[in-house]
Structures are given as C-alpha cells and as structure tokens.
UniProtKB/TrEMBL annotation:
Coiled coil: none annotated. This is Bax inhibitor-1 family protein. InterPro entries: Bax_inhibitor_1-related. The chain crosses the membrane at residues 25-48, 60-79, 91-111, 117-138, 150-168, 174-193, 205-227. It is found in: Membrane. It comes from the Bacteria. Keywords: Membrane, Transmembrane, Transmembrane helix. It is a multi-pass membrane protein. The keyword Glycoprotein does not apply. It holds the Pfam family Bax1-I.
Amino acid sequence: MDHTAQQFPESGLGVSRVEFIRSAYMHLAGAIVGFTLLSAILYATGFGQAALKLMGASKWIWLGFLGAFMVVGWFATNLADNAESNQKQLVGLGVYVLAEALIFSPLFALAGLIAPGAIGAAAFITLVLVGGLTYTAFTVKTDFSFLGSILKVAGFVALGAIVASLIFGFSLGIWFSAIMVIFAGGCVLYDTGQIIHHYPTDRPAGAALHLFASIALMLWYVLRILLSLASSDD
C-alpha cells in the first residue's frame, strides 16, 4: 500500500490503491465477459462436444489436456504478474481467459446434454457466493493473507486427488466438489484481500487473473454439483 498517498477518510485506502482496485475489477469484468463470449463461441461451433467425445475415448487425453492447461496457466500468470508493460500483462490475462474457456468447453458440452439450465444456475450461484465473499472481504478488517499457506497445501492435496482419480479411474463424488467450492471460496477471500491490501498497484491485470481463476474454479465445481444432482434425479 502506498502510505505516502493521500488517504480517503472513510476507506483508509490510498488514492493509488483505490484506483488500482477499480482497475483490477474492470479487468476482472473484461475477463468474465471474454470468457463468456469465448465459451459461447466454442459451444456454438461444436468444439466442446468434440472435446468431450475425444476425452471420453481415453483418460490420458483428459490428463494431457489438464496438464497443458496448467502449463499455459503458469505461463499466463507469470506474464501477468511480472511483466512491466500493461500490454504484456493484458496478454497474460487474455491467454489465461482463453485457456479457461477451452478447459470449460467439454464441461459445458456435458451440461448441454444432461441439464442445459445448470449452466445459468451455476453462474448465478457463483455470482451470489462471490458477491457475498467480496462484501465480507471489503467490510471486515481481517487481512486474509494467513489463508495463503493453507490454500497452497490444500491445493496440492486436491490436485493429487484429481490426478489420482484420472489415473486409477475412481470418482471423487459430489462431496469432493462441495469441498472444492469451499476451497474456491477461500481463494476468493484471499485474492480479494491481496487486491485490497498487498498486490502491486501497477499490475491490475495480474490481480484480476488470480481472482478470475478462483471464480472460475468455484463455477467449475458448482456446475459439477448441479450436474451430479441432475444425473441422480434421472
């Protein structure tokens, strides 16, 4: 935080920090709009359906797809976090949004087959949850930085469980999805707290990327829960 900047008497945030927060959320809004448009295009063109059929043929294809997403995500995050120019940071955010749209495409295709209304419902539920968590982060005085180490360990455990399920062919079930929604909620709190208090003010695209990634993770598992419920009703 820039302690040399003039302080807002009500918020206690420096001018540069407040401007950064606004910019970060504008970038986040752009990322969400871009993700929505890209997802709609991939769905309309049949890419998601083709990807779903391809991944259904072999678990190794889905594992490779997940690995490629992680590599691209690391590259995009590193670029958005560390590039000096705003243009390069935006490239990193754009690449990450595209990667998310691609990895979501087979899940959206599956939802289109099982319960088309689940996509809109999952988006609404995610919006409500994120809105509540954002309000909490902005209104309480708690610095959620302490969540960082907890989330890192939990993230590695979750990743290990996901990879193991793909390799050995067992289902993680609806309870795992519920736990992951809670995990994603913790990520949203942590990322929002970083934006409010700690994230460098010259990297709004990077801040938006981290928060977008957490929101996308929540959307993924909320949708999985709704699809599991829809499947059990059949």
